[in-house]
Write a structure and sequence with these properties.
Elements (H helix, E strand, L loop, with lengths): L9 E2 L5 E8 L3 E2 L19 H15 L5 H10 L5 E3 L3 E11 L6 E11 L5 E6 L5 H12 L11 E5 L2 E2 L5 E2 L10 E8 L5 H5 L2 H6 L8 E8 L4 E2 L19 E7 L9 H19 L6 H4 L15 E5 L9 E5 L6 H8 L3 E4 L4 E11 L11 E7 L3 E2 L5 E3 L10 E3 L2 H11 L7 E5 L1 E2 L14 E2 L16 E13 L2 E2 L10 E4 L2
Length: 501
Amino acid sequence: MVREGEEGLLSRGVEALVGIALRFTAGRFHATPWGRHVNEGVVEWPPSPWRLLRALVAVWRRTLPDVDQASVEELLARLSSPPEFFLPQARTAHTRHYMPLGAPKSTALVFDTFVALSPHEPVVCVWPAVDLSPDQEELLRQLLDNLPYLGRAESWVRASLVDQVPPVNCRPVARDAPDPSVELVRVLAPAEPFSLAALIAETGSLRSLGYLSPPGSRWVTYALPEGALEGPRRSRRPRTRGAQHPEVTLVRFALDGPVLPRVVDTLRVGEVARQAAMSQYGRRHDGRVSSTFSGRAEDGTPLQGHRHAFYIPTDEDGDGRLDHLTIWAPGGLQPDELEALAAVEELARGRESLRLSVIWLGAGRPEDFPIPWLGWHRRWRSQTPFVLSRHVKLRGDTQGGTVPKQLVDGPEDQLRLELRRRGYPTPVSVRRLPALPLGSGAGPTRSSRAYRWYEFHRWRSRVPPAGGAYGFEMEFEEEVPGPLLLGYACHFGLGLFVPSE
């Protein structure tokens, strides 16, 4: 905290500086970085200089309209250089919201990830060697007094100028900082030369015009202090299936392109993702093949146990188009395999006119991402079809045609058998779904198109042994963990189940 007379404090009486204390009175800072989706679970930390200055502009226009623009521009220009920060101890957390859609009783599950911190421990922004005139200081004081929140509206804040600031623990650094123990993060800041007009521009207009970052801004890299942002406290039990999980088993990407592929092309995109991963690995290792990426041993025989990579394209905004790619290897990803995945920038297949940009979002384990289908749930439903690997059989005596033959090894039987082989408990109920539900996605929903399961592309170079496509909703007695993928071509995104809640 900022305390009078505390040892190590910097004082305005000693050197020129500007210090702003931000106390988040509800103990939460809600802000999604530019270019990220709220359901990705990424938080902005430290608060970006761009966000702070835009908030001050909004306060000026809403509460101090009589102050002339030139005075505001001169003040903010003085604060346009990237500040240093004192960051108190904090951790990430999230809440779930069921947002109403258009139709009656129709909702979408949205994860709201935020930074949790003490309302008594301020974030302090420091501009060393910046001196304000008395008029500028008074204007800044008025703007801060009128600032109700920073970030989203639930991030209530009490902002004030401070004469003494604690020693900073978060500074801008060169992007290639040599210390490997330091965690680097990028946040938006005003570019040089400073432009007030850039801060005033509406975010919605910029997004509609396709800007990757706002004009007049730049990305600044900060070094976070060790332990500055801890993960959420977890009450759920760890996974018990299989061996101890290595450090990294999952990598997330966003997909972008002129036209995103439809969800029915999940298998095609999954195949191209595998080719891209294998290609990047081969380039770096004299043509050698990663068994994790290929799913085959050195002698070419298929790996058993489903510990190799799953390539999972998903529609996470519910528009019927694939917008994310998750690569999950339960057996773990080695450093050289992670390097190969980090080098993937494009998914392309000429004969299908597929060309997508790939944006790295993060790496970790399923429990590190607040994505619904990566978590623990009791009820699950099909997001892509469960494709049979064996033909359904009919057995039994018809007694001269008076009774029908019995169905043997039917779709439900094959589903239960595969669950048992994967180490999952037997579901207490299984019911068929005729189609991918209207507006259904792995995230918020807004599509108006229903897809029958047979509309999905569901074979690779060879037609599957059976090929029948089915969808199910199943319920377990207790929560079971995702990702949950079953059936033929499950390593390419078919047979994906998502929470049904």
